[in-house]
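Q: Entry one of two.
A:
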Amino acid sequence: MAETAGFIAREVPASGYVSLLADGQAHRLYQQFGFQLTAPASVGMGFSKTTGSPD
């Protein structure tokens, strides 16, 4: 995570917005690097298309 935070600090412009998804209690780690919870204003969503499912 320290390497990711360093990349963000070096490469993301001041006007940039970085989001990530946290499983379980991982948000506690991310908070140590300045990330803040966004719920209930926004929530993460996902979609997984499994092999063999109809198109």
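Q: Entry two of two.
A:
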Amino acid sequence: MKTAVVILNWNTAEYLRRFVPALLSSLEGRDAELVVADNGSEDGSIDLMNSEFPQVRTIALGQNYGFTGGYNRALEQLEAEYFVLINSDIEVPEDWLDPLVSWMDAHPQCGACGPKLLSWNERERFEYAGAAGGYIDRYGFPYCRGRVLGRTEKDSGQYDTPARVMWVSGACLMVRSALWKELGGLDERFFAHMEEIDLCWRMALRGREVWCVPASKVWHIGGGTLPQGSPRKLELNFRNSLLMLEKNLPLTIGPSRARRRLFVRRCIDRIMQLAYLLTLRPSLARAVGSAHRQWHELRADGGGLRPAHVRATRYPSQQSWAPPVHESRATTQCGPQTTAAGRSEIEGFKQARLVFFEYICTIIH
């Protein structure tokens, strides 16, 4: 089989009922199969699939392993050249899959790619979760082409040229199955959130590229599991950013610089925690504190990757990684730049400090 399109479901039966028909229609006549893996749902999702979509293969995982553990367990049961991770709350047009497959076929160095991610509620605007592909700044805060902080742009064709990016959203992500297995899939310590950025970073350290392919587009509702402003979502994002930085930064810029960078990031987090307290949002402040405590507990465990042998994998410290610099109309978005020694460094926004202070102002307001 060429492509396995896999929905990881957890209590989203209504989304399945709404969006599976279009997804099935888009796969007709193609060497592709839709699979629904269920993370122990209690809303009748499996019964719905069996009764309304009996032609779709379902994998009942029995409990909630999170985004990371669920996909790891589902994909290890499948054989295909390409895996597509796709959320249950995504609407697809008829021709969404072909551009992704064609891109991967034509670009063997590409380890992963994704479509333009548009908002289901505001169909001409980009969606927050991934927009047109993203980067991270030097302290691990992600941002996208088509999104700055909480603001998204209207899709006016400004990102209609394929672009090499650092990451594309796990809401709709195509990966080479061989590379997925080589990397051990997703880091299960993450559970959910930031895991696709970590995966794409590890691909880059292996010399593979990640691209946004705008000839493909899908519409995403977003927030189906954890809504924006959720303390749990904030906790996961802060915790997983630290896990991701501690794991990948030393291999990217060297251990000494990575330690300094991580220290600054932890200080920034504490400033944000104080800002939440000052603006009378104690649940969010507690979430930041909890994220740091959990990070301390998890940081010694390098065993979040499957299968077990991948835990001992070490990437070449001299491996060059240099995603391109992308110039947007609003700001300069920079990927990592390769140094003379062969190591490369994550570059954030051209004026990263201004972005940080803008974020603090967003919290305060």
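A: Comment on entry two: The CA atoms of residues 55 and 113 lie 27 Å apart. The chain has two domains: 3-220, 231-364.
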